[in-house]
Amino acid sequence: MSKRASVKMVAETANAKKPKHWSRGLVESINDPETIVKKTNNIVVINDKYPKAKIHYLVLPEDNINSIYKLNSSHVRLLEEFGKLYEEIKAEHKDHNLRAGFHAVPSMQRLHMHIISTDMISPCLKTKIHWNSFTTKFFLPYQDVLEELKENGTIKKITNEQHKSLMSSPLKCNQCDHISKNMPQLKEHLISHVK
Fold this sequence. Notes:
Elements: H1 3-17, H2 25-29, E1 36-39, E2 43-47, E3 56-61, H3 76-92, E4 98-103, E5 113-117, H4 128-135, E6 139-141, H5 142-152, H6 160-167, E7 171-172, E8 179-180, H7 183-191
Antiparallel strand pairs: 1-2, 2-3, 3-5, 4-5, 4-6, 7-8
């Protein structure tokens, strides 16, 4: 074996052992048949590994688009297809109130839209940041993002100040005016909305 081949093999072995960063987990998930709920030529719908409600899906493009801020007017049709899949999923879950949207500051690499039920009952819903990322203006509704993309050809980023303000918002119920002091109290309150 040549010295060059030996060095290449050592580098490949080191890279194979190196743990992948958690923010890249979605790329692996879209290739895992056990997580896939629906698939088209352009889009994959997967179960969220850490659901924040009874129903929580992620809609991702097959193309490597990093976030909503990498979208341009050429992606309007792709986003419209996201919407069609959202409508299909809503029809399949008529007994749940579902919302679709994007986080203003995504934590995971690869564009993804959340489809999530408003019950927000889940053992994975643990922190104020979890709650506020789905119940404040940090959660950008699908239709608003689509309209902004059609009108402007891009999506405008929120400021760091807006981000901090939204994440520190009070724990206000997403179904009534109740404000909780902490997450356990909020989770207990949410059960009162279950029919």
